[in-house]
Structure formats: structure tokens, C-alpha cells
């Protein structure tokens, strides 16, 4: 830039937003990961054939209680995904667990899986989000947990 050139300050909201986001990330570097309950942390016995074939392990069926409705379910903890959740927590991520079934169901699952110490937020799965950006613009990584037989991540 030469001496006679003026530095013009961008006035778009995106300039200020980007500046704020960069400062926020610099001073508060928390990253967030969200895990679903049904089909991700807990599997259903009717999926047992697929589970044994896809994951090459004999899962253990456990009894899960949902006290608000006095219900008992026989479900399978998905140990690989549970370990993945713990791994994200140990890397410093804020961990959210949600369920379309309800916040109460998500909390019951977290408690009965012994994950209270690894989970920061328990909530109902969002049906709608409101933002000025499309999800593809702000969600850097979308990780769908799929595994090859033997437990190797794809």
C-alpha cells in the first residue's frame, strides 16, 4: 500500500461477524459434538442380526428403565459409539446428547450408560434450526459413525 492510499474499512456484517468469530475461537476454543441416542448410543434387539454381521461382536442386551412412563426396554449399548463419545470428551469437546424421543429419554440413557461425567448438555433433538447460514456453512465436520466388521472405522 502506498502512502496516499486510504485504508478502507469493510462495513459488511460478514466482516464484523468473521472478526468476532475469530476472536471468540481464539479466546474460547471449545468445540462441540452431538450424539443421538436411538440407533447411535443404543441399539434395538430387532437389529441383532445386522449388528452381529456389521460389527462382528456379540452385543450384550441390557435392561433400560424409563421412569417417567414406568417403562422397561431391552436395549444394546453400542460400545464403539460410546467409546467415541468419551474420546471426543477427552479431546476437549463439549458433548451434547439428544434424542427425538425426549430430553428425559436422552437423560435416562446417559445416566444408565454411566456417561454423566462425559456429557455437558442433554436435550431433545432439534427439529428446526434458525440461523442466517445454511448448516453446510457452519458445520465443519459431519461425522456419521459407521464401522467395518471388526470395529475398524470407515
What does this structure look like?
The protein is an alpha/beta fold and 154 residues long. The chain has a domain at 35-138. It contains five helices and six strands, in the order αββαββαβαβα. The protein has helices spanning 13-27, 48-55, 79-90, 103-112, 135-138, and strands spanning 31-36, 42-43, 62-66, 71-77, 93-99, 121-124. The protein has a three-stranded parallel beta sheet, covered by helices on one side. A three-stranded antiparallel beta sheet has the order 2-4-3, with helices on one face. Strand 3 (62-66) and strand 4 form a beta hairpin. The model is unreliable at 147-154 (pLDDT under 50).
Topology:
Elements: H1 13-27, E1 31-36, E2 42-43, H2 48-55, E3 62-66, E4 71-77, H3 79-90, E5 93-99, H4 103-112, E6 121-124, H5 135-138
Parallel strand pairs: 1-5, 5-6
Antiparallel strand pairs: 2-4, 3-4
Total count of helical runs of at least 4 residues: 5
Radius of gyration: 21 Å
Low-confidence stretches: 147-154
Oligomeric status: single chain
Write down the secondary-structure element order: HEEHEEHEHEH
| Biggest beta sheet attributes | 3 strands, parallel
- Anisotropy-based shape: elongated
- Which strand-content bin applies to the residues? 15-25%
Structural class: alpha/beta
Report how far the terminal alpha carbons are from each other: 49 Å
Write down how many β-strands occur, each being a DSSP E stretch of 2 or more residues. 6
Mean pLDDT reading? 78
The neighbouring-strand order within the major sheet is 1-5-6
Helix content: 25-40%
Amino acid at each position: 500500500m502506498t502512502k496516499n492510499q486510504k485504508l478502507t474499512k469493510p462495513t459488511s456484517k460478514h466482516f464484523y461477524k468473521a472478526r468476532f468469530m475469530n476472536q471468540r475461537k481464539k479466546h474460547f476454543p471449545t468445540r462441540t459434538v452431538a450424539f443421538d441416542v436411538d440407533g447411535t448410543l443404543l441399539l434395538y434387539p430387532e437389529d441383532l442380526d445386522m449388528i452381529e454381521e456389521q460389527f462382528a461382536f456379540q452385543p450384550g442386551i441390557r435392561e433400560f428403565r424409563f421412569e417417567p412412563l414406568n417403562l422397561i426396554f431391552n436395549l444394546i449399548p453400542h460400545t464403539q459409539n460410546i467409546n467415541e463419545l468419551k474420546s471426543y470428551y477427552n479431546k476437549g469437546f463439549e458433548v451434547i446428547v439428544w434424542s427425538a424421543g425426549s430430553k428425559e429419554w436422552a437423560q435416562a440413557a446417559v445416566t444408565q450408560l454411566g456417561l454423566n461425567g462425559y456429557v455437558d448438555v442433554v436435550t431433545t433433538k432439534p427439529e428446526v434450526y434458525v440461523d442466517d447460514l445454511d448448516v453446510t456453512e457452519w458445520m465443519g465436520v459431519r461425522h456419521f459413525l459407521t464401522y467395518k466388521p471388526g470395529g475398524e472405522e470407515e
